[in-house]
Amino acid sequence: QKRALVLVLRCFSAKTTTTTRSMTFVSGGGSHRFLCLAVKVEDTGRRPSSSSSSRGRDKKTAVTVGERKGKRRPRSKTTASTNNNSNNSNGNKNASKDLELPELLFGAASTSFALTVDAITSGLDFVQKVTSTEKPSSKYPPGPDFDSAFEMGQNPLKFIEKVKSRYGPVAGLRLAGENVILVSKPSVAKQVLIDDEASFTKKGTAFFPSSRLAGDGLLVTDGDVWRSQRRLSNPAFRKAAVETYAKAMNECIEETIRTRWRTNGERDIYEDFNEVTLQVVCRTLFGEDAVGTKGKEIVDSIRVAFEYFAKRSSGIEMILPEWFPLPSNISFNDAVDRLDNAVYAIIDKRLAEMEEPCFIACATQEMDLLDRLLSASLDDLVEDEEDRVLKGAMASSSNNDDEDAVTNTNRKKMSRKQLRDEVMTLIVAGQETSAIVLSWAVAFVAKDESFGERIAKEATEARILASKRLKKSPLEKEQEECTIAEEVIDDDDNCKEPDSETIIAQTELTFESIKDLPFTEAIILETMRLKPPAYIVGRSNSISDVHLDENNKYDIPRGSTILVSPYLAHRDGQYWSKPNEFDPNRWLALDPETNQPYARTALRGMGYKNTYFPFGAGPRACIGAQFAMLEAIILLACSCEKRRFDLPDDIDTNNNNNNNNSPGTKGGGFPKDAAGITLRPESPVRMKVSAIRRKNL
To answer: How many CB atoms lie within 10 A of CB 414?
Structure first.
């Protein structure tokens, strides 16, 4: 109705002799087009009389509203010829008058009535879907008879656990009238995410609304558009690139330790880690442009947008469009506008500064993530296995057999809009999820004092090993010079080896340090097993009907939503020993097949026994998984090395998290689940933070 009113007002203010306005209204009942035709008359100094109006439509304004399904009411020859004559006779003169108010009101009322009728029809269809108990097919997976949207909305984790317990690892549901398949069986999850991934899309997935903040980034696109964007983004997340982001991670967590955790006291750990990860993503994305006034504008705008998303994940705002004039929507859209202005300004600045190939050749080590996205083009990528698969899929899906056409498709970079969308996607997908993992991890560490002590010792030893690796660099072997950063000068002006305290203070943890932090890595892996931020992964078979499970056991009608649940798979007692117990040592045990710790292959394919996929799996697995692991390990190691975390004794322990406090653990409680779009802890996550004195090595 809002759009219809705007349409009529535009017709009213039009200055051309003949103006046509149309719009498309999409609803459950289909797509309908409404046409508004406004015709002006010659300015004779007076309004045409009713008699003249009855003799011909050419002497009076005509309004046609409500044509549906793209059928346009034909205009009479008299009207068309009169318009031409009017144009020829008037020239540059003002020869028209506005539509009469009654006719405008009639047009608006007609359009509003048509929209209302369609909305009622759609509402009736929705009620019929919600109340129906009929299964889509005889081979549809078992599940509840009635619509379960309300029950799932009350407590998503409890609901999906109950469904799995009652109906098995592949269950058919109806949620808000939509056909939904809940999958936790490893073989079926692998079929959806890897084996038959081409049969499933992000488009059409229910309960995963798009937003103008992320735009058309990797999270929501499909087909060749997604493949092209994925290939262009891959170089920014390869090992060589990720290694360079460790410096920003060290700086951000050290800054938090010096400021937010400077004094002993109680803190909201979730809020603190949100701030740290936001600073990390901004600095790795924008480098020096994330510092100062411009950086503060970006950070503040992102913060407002994320607060909006947190509210939108529950309540009535979930079902209302972003343009609806709620106060939160207005604040959100203002924040996105400010963020767009800042990001586009940075993109334009970088585009003006970049001069290939000199920029790439001379500045590779100092390139931030945005630089790498700007520099990437499909024709000069160094292909890895994923690139070859994506390139082959693009070529096979092309209808043009001409090799030049494929080459021209590959010779492209991201457009200005694509760059903006991918940058926003990386912020949305990477910032909060890292904060969630770190908040849960610190909560688990706080339950067992030995965990924190073990991480602290490991981190200190890792810094010393990192320092030794720096000394063995080829550059230092050639120079063989004493530097203040590596050695200290005694009273006789002689160089001597620095003590451990100096080494620890001056050496940062690096990408290579991960192998020296096995227990810290195990804590992160075990945290994501029990509390995966993406606790359900959505797909849709929008292309065609599909069959799931062995021997085509289940028939899934086209347009269904498939919800693959890592949360359920990670807690399946058929594959995991003590599935609900937090045990990081399970990742340090040796895999008899590889004779390496299970942690080494945890994130390959579908992980441990095809049941571990916190970052998804297959071609659409999280592109930033390596970045996220590096960030989580460095931030947790640095935090536990210099600060001790304790759960306050006055927190309610009756939290139904399947993580009951066991004898010998610290604190009186554990954060509650707050499952919405992601599985985050219920805020605030109160924690006692205190400085620890480093023990001598």
So the answer is: 21
